[in-house]
Amino acid sequence: MVKFGGDLVANKDVLEKLARDIAKVSSREGIVVVHGGGDIVTTIAEKLGKPQVFITSPDGFRSRYTDRETAEIYMMVMAGKINKEVVLSLIKVGVNAVGISGVDGALLRAERKKRLVIIDERGRRRAIEGGYTGRIVGVNGEFLNALLNKGMIPVIAPVAIGDEAEVLNVDGDRAAAHIASALKANTLVLLTDVEGIIINDKLVDRMDISKAKAALKRVGAGMITKLYAAIEALEGGVKRVVIASGFKDEPITAALMGQGTVINFGS
Q: Can you give the pTM of this predicted structure?
């Protein structure tokens, strides 16, 4: 199970290296890909005249505020442009990739958040209407296993379907964690733009889940979501999570060999 973000997708050289590495890894074991692309969504939304608004939760999560129009743009860009660019890069190197979103086959079911608590510009807690952001409550693992059993590599855009068949924005790292748990994946690899979890200017190469929980308040906004996702995946039955740089020649192979921050359930 591999998840990589929009900064890797937007760089053609990096995406080509990722595609070649996925081809290499998938020749010996099944692999599922989840991609991000929030920055690309922001760029296109603003070109369309829809400025994007970002909010921060009391726990330090920074996320996009998703009203109905933003949800429509999010689905169009994430499940359309970005997803197909990733699929094309994989097919180019011989991978039997199939692009889907969390809406297809009701792959990702989410509960719409009715209310959000944020920290406003004055540093005060404030409740706002939840918009079209969701909390994942179910994964159609049978659908994914059917694709894997046909020799296909699912490439998943993190868009979910709500109870009223509405499109919901869900976090890509958390989506990857839920999917990895549903599939009981051996390893979840979260690729990013740094070498792993950095604390006191040093890379943490190994930690167990208790140390991961303790580290939540010591990492920045860019890493806290990945750390939460890692904890959710391990509690969901994934054997290990590796947070590593995606800017290497063979980033997935390197992560599977233990380069980056490896997080296990126990010590």
A: 0.93
